[in-house]
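ugh ok fine here u go
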Amino acid sequence: MARLPLFPLATVLSPGSTLPLQVFEPRYRQLVTDLLEGPGAPEFGVVAIRVGTETGENSADDFAHVGCTAVLQHVDSLKPGLYHVKTRGSQRFRIRRIMTDPAPYLVADVTWLPEIDGDTRRLPALARLVRERLDEYCAMLGLEPPTGFEPVFRRDIDAARRLSYGVGDHMVLTLEEKLALLEASTTEERLNLARKLLRREIGLFDAIAALPQRIDAANICPN
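structure:
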């Protein structure tokens, strides 16, 4: 078990993904300062907000209990009261309890989630199928196919794991669907879920010739 500062956000961070942030709230500026000045690794836990907002006194009323650490890679203070931060997702964790801590931000006791691959004999072929579907999906949206998931050798399990996490960054999915990918217990399970999601989205496009897109509920008029 470890103690980890938390940063609830309206997004899901996965291992290997990049996450740029503009940090302006005093409590999270203090978090960045504490990480830069502290003796430990400069990382915090990102957890997805299910109910609430990222800012304000009543923010983050409910958030996921599985998250991913964000490792600070670069911090700029371009003007007073604002940090531009670059981070990269590293390790999954599960929240065990929120601590009563003097810090102005949330701190939790967490346990690290192991990386279990499943049936490693099936993973390379499964990863190839998912990669083919992802390329098809990106072509459907008129996007360049993503890089960084290519296996170095035929049975590259690390490449399959990277793809299982990275596929969600290149799809338009709900928060709960991205959480399901993050929370999957094995690489095999995550790839199978990604394959189903890709098959669904490609099938919908073939059926109705409509591209997926994010809709901001705040811009929808109930009248």
